[in-house]
Design brief:
Elements lengths: L3 H9 L3 H9 L7 H14 L1 E4 L2 E4 L11 H30 L6 H20 L9 H5 L2 E5 L8 H15 L4 H12 L6 H6 L1 E5 H11 L1
Antiparallel strand pairs: 1-2, 3-4
Helix pairs in contact: 1-3, 2-3, 4-5, 7-8
Length: about 210
């Protein structure tokens, strides 16, 4: 027999499609503890029973917390995509110059690479389906918590600016966003709160939208 807390933990790590299946069965088949925890988690995600069907509230869009390890992996991948050309341009410049004054070509290469890094960093989460290249690789996306639509370019800019400001503070600033992600119930960092976004699983987003449609 599981306790309510154990069921809460279990349902919190279940995707919404699994919860919808549980909500569709006869409540008498569940223990009181399971029913209580399931009701809480369903309300948190905007799921509710309507007769024999399960519907999603049109005004509430709540998703499970994306795994921190996957988010970290996506971040590292995107960092490589953004800064890789800068590092490559610098190395090529060193090899070509061989200790001589920096040539105009090398300067142009570095400026172009830095411009790409800035552009990608500011707009990466507003690309395509709210997915940067790293997030696409790890089945993640950024979604607007109010509109339940993929992150826009404006929201991506907001997320990036908050991160950049914090990263300008050595050590302490670097740890703020990861800490907030870990303690936040929905895994939203300060940039997410500022932009009104959340990082979620693409598979969960598609399952919820399919059920809603």
């Amino acid at each position: 027999m599981f306790t309510v807390e154990e069921y809460r933990e279990r349902y919190a790590h279940s995707n919404s499609e699994e919860l919808i299946s549980l909500l569709a069965i006869d409540p008498d088949q569940l223990t009181p503890e399971a029913r209580a925890a399931l009701s809480e988690e369903a309300e948190r995600r905007g799921l509710q029973r309507s007769g024999r069907d399960v519907v999603v509230s049109p005004t509430v869009y709540r998703y499970t917390k994306a795994p921190f390890s996957d988010r970290l992996g996506a971040f590292l991948f995107d960092t490589f995509v953004g800064l890789g050309p800068v590092i490559a341009a610098g190395l090529v410049g060193l090899i070509i110059d061989l200790g001589k004054p920096t040539k105009t070509t090398t300067q142009i290469n570095l400026i172009g690479a830095c411009a790409w890094a800035l552009y990608y960093g500011l707009t990466k989460d507003g690309r395509g389906n709210g997915q940067s290249i790293g997030k696409r690789k790890l089945d993640l996306m950024v979604v607007s918590v109010k509109a339940d639509l993929p992150c826009t370019m404006v929201q991506s800019l907001g997320r990036a600016v908050v991160l950049a400001v914090l990263c300008a503070v050595p050590v302490f600033g670097w740890l703020v966003e990861p800490f907030v992600v870990l303690v936040s119930r929905q895994g939203r960092r300060l940039g997410d709160f500022a932009a009104g976004t959340q990082v979620i699983r693409v598979s969960e987003y598609e399952a919820i939208r399919h059920k809603r449609d």
